[in-house]
UniProtKB/TrEMBL annotation:
<protein>
    <recommendedName>
        <fullName>Lipid A biosynthesis lauroyl acyltransferase</fullName>
    </recommendedName>
</protein>
<dbReference type="Pfam" id="PF03279">
    <property type="entry name" value="Lip_A_acyltrans"/>
</dbReference>
<dbReference type="GO" id="GO:0005886">
    <property type="term" value="C:plasma membrane"/>
</dbReference>
<dbReference type="GO" id="GO:0016746">
    <property type="term" value="F:acyltransferase activity"/>
</dbReference>
<keyword id="KW-1003">Cell membrane</keyword>
<keyword id="KW-0012">Acyltransferase</keyword>
<keyword id="KW-0472">Membrane</keyword>
<dbReference type="GO" id="GO:0009247">
    <property type="term" value="P:glycolipid biosynthetic process"/>
</dbReference>
<keyword id="KW-0808">Transferase</keyword>
<dbReference type="InterPro" id="IPR004960">
    <property type="entry name" value="LipA_acyltrans"/>
</dbReference>
<keyword id="KW-0997">Cell inner membrane</keyword>
Length: 287
């Protein structure tokens, strides 16, 4: 596995993106049960108002952006943290993040599978040491690569189990900050079926329960490559809808999904539509 980090470290990012573009081209030639197929299904559910031509164009663009995100994530894992920080050019509404981090109630950073979220990890760590849940990847070699990169940042990594949840709560109670990816499909015991882009699907309740119990600040963070390919921009969104703290977990989780939708709608092609996000509701969606 050490060969691949070395290769990612040596090859310049524009060249790696060219490789990703070639990979996307071949994926887009295989529409059946591939990333393109899942992306088409998801976009059809999320944006029914688009014409077939618009959805097809968006689907193919999204496949390319997803391939870019994968290769960019690998590049930032292979490079020192300082390199990733240098890639961040413009930060929109930074005061939203800094105000939340100074709040004694703590801050929960909501980071969907949107853009190249891995690229801003080192940048976020300039503002403190977050507690982050980490689920090992299936490929042991790739997992070791990613885990080593994250451990360099001195983040507090906790498992995705009861002990990890307890650690997140404790950190927030002490005024710290934690990072959660809110849009993975959880086990049924850890979620509720609520609308996402109007489609009922299984949604994690963890972030909403944390907000309910700690009254922490909620901030959405997303990171996108610039149109000229020169670096990335970060967007900080103040998630301040009172419904996010509602005692009814379905109301709170629905509000969180709506907040994530708004983040995605900024650049829809940048979302990881190749993931079967709409599971847990209509069982025929992906058949």
């Amino acid at each position: 596995m050490s060969f691949y980090p070395t290769l990612l470290r040596i090859l310049p990012l524009p060249f790696l993106r060219s490789i990703a573009k070639v990979a996307a081209y071949f994926i887009n030639q295989n529409p059946n049960k591939s990333m393109l197929w899942k992306t088409r299904v998801n976009l059809g559910l999320a944006y029914p108002e688009l014409s077939q031509e618009q959805k097809e164009r968006l689907a193919r663009e999204s496949v390319t952006k997803q391939c870019f995100s994968y290769i960019e994530s690998g590049k930032c894992w292979a490079m020192p943290p300082e390199w990733s920080i240098q890639q961040i050019h413009t930060v929109h509404h930074l005061e939203v993040l800094t105000d939340a981090l100074s709040d004694p109630r703590g801050a929960l950073i909501i980071t969907p599978h949107l853009g190249t979220w891995e690229m801003m990890n080192a940048w976020v760590h300039q503002y403190g040491i977050p507690t982050i849940m980490y689920k090992p990847m299936k490929d042991s070699g790739f997992n070791a690569f990613a885990l080593h990169a994250r451990q360099r940042l001195n983040a507090t990594l906790v498992p995705t189990d009861a002990s990890g949840v307890k650690a997140l709560f404790k950190n927030l109670k002490q005024g710290g900050f934690s990072v959660i990816l809110p849009d993975h499909v959880p086990d049924p015991s850890g979620g509720v079926v609520v609308p996402f882009f109007g489609i009922p699907c299984l949604t994690s309740t963890l972030a909403s329960k944390m907000a309910q119990k700690t009254q922490c600040r909620l901030v959405g963070l997303s990171c996108f490559r610039r149109e000229d390919g020169e670096g990335f921009d970060v967007y900080c969104d103040d998630l301040n809808d009172p419904a996010l703290y509602d005692r009814d977990i379905e109301v709170a989780t629905t509000a969180l999904n709506q907040a994530v939708e708004q983040m995605i709608n900024r650049f829809p092609a940048e979302y990881m539509w190749g993931y079967k996000r709409f599971r847990g509701g209509d069982k025929t969606v992906y058949k």
